[in-house]
Design a protein that fits this description.
Layout (H helix, E strand, L loop, with lengths): L2 E10 L2 E11 L4 E5 L6 H9 L5 E9 L2 E2 L5 H6 L2 E4 L6 E5 H15 L7 H14 L4 H4 L2 E2 L5 H15 L3 E5 L7 H14 L5 E5 L3 H4 L6 E6 L2 E6 L2 H9 L2 H4 L4
Parallel strand pairs: 3-10, 3-11, 6-9, 9-10
Antiparallel strand pairs: 1-2, 1-4, 4-5, 7-8, 11-12
Helix pairs in contact: 4-6, 6-7
């Protein structure tokens, strides 16, 4: 099992946001987490990433059998956890290529592997940029600086392709994308899915799941997963909205 979340409770200050999350993710699976605004979806992603703003008050998170909550942010990344954020940050003055080479070689060092040579790195960059149709000139710019929303999301999936994570958590990757950018980003994600890794997609909309077809769909509401089912649940939510499902919890 790649990820096991049991009875996860999280608060910010005195406000409890997650109120007992249970989730299991195995290799080879794609999970979608859906739910209305304010349900705790992005909080869940932030906790997995190690954002210290959030306090875990109860429960456990095991990642590849290890206590994820005890790991530093850096070690979570080195262990193969990737977080794609709703609003990717800009890093002025740091070129994408230098950023990725440093990140990739830190990961390889942690795994006991030799760093990539310049030729190996450039070849890998070229191959992975093609996955999301990212122009070569974009990889030579500062990280996300001056990028459009779609370019930032493509850039994140490029980073994901370069790092080849075991578990990718994608928080509203479809946010702000037009239909062409959505297709390209989703195609990139699909190409990176294989039997040894897993992806958790957090989204509001069925339209992303037309391209990235999940094995499981979970509805998060008021800090709890209130329903889990197959991909047909997303279609039902698209047709009916959330009201029919959350009425018993209001």
């Amino acid at each position: 099992m790649l990820l096991s979340v049991k009875n996860l409770h999280v608060k910010v200050g005195e406000k409890e946001i997650l109120k007992g999350i249970d989730l299991q993710v195995h290799a080879g699976e794609v999970h979608a987490i859906m739910g209305p605004n304010g349900s705790g979806k992005s909080t869940f992603a932030s906790v997995l990433a190690g954002n210290e703003k959030f306090e875990v008050t109860e429960g456990e998170v095991l990642y590849r059998g290890k206590d994820l909550l005890a790991m530093s942010i850096e070690d979570r990344a080195r262990e193969g956890l990737f977080i794609g954020f709703q609003y990717p940050v800009e890093i002025p003055g740091v070129s994408m290529m230098n950023f990725m080479r440093q990140a990739l070689n830190e990961q390889r060092k942690y795994q006991g592997l030799a760093p990539l040579t310049a030729v190996e790195f450039l070849q890998r960059s070229k191959e992975k940029a093609a996955v999301v149709e990212l122009e070569a000139k974009m990889t030579n710019r500062a990280v996300n600086e001056g990028f459009s929303g779609g370019e930032k999301k493509k850039n994140e999936i490029f980073q994901m392709a370069m790092l080849d994570p075991k578990l990718a958590i994608l928080d509203e990757t479809d946010s702000g994308l037009d239909i062409d950018a959505l297709r390209i980003v989703a195609s990139g994600v699909n190409q990176l899915c294989h039997s040894d890794n897993a992806t958790v997609v957090i989204t509001h909309y069925q339209r992303l799941l037309d391209y990235i077809v999940p094995d499981y769909v979970h509805v998060l509401y008021q800090g709890r997963i209130i329903k889990s089912a197959g991909k047909e649940l997303a279609l039902e939510l698209e047709e009916k909205g959330y009201d029919w499902l959350i009425k018993d919890y209001q």
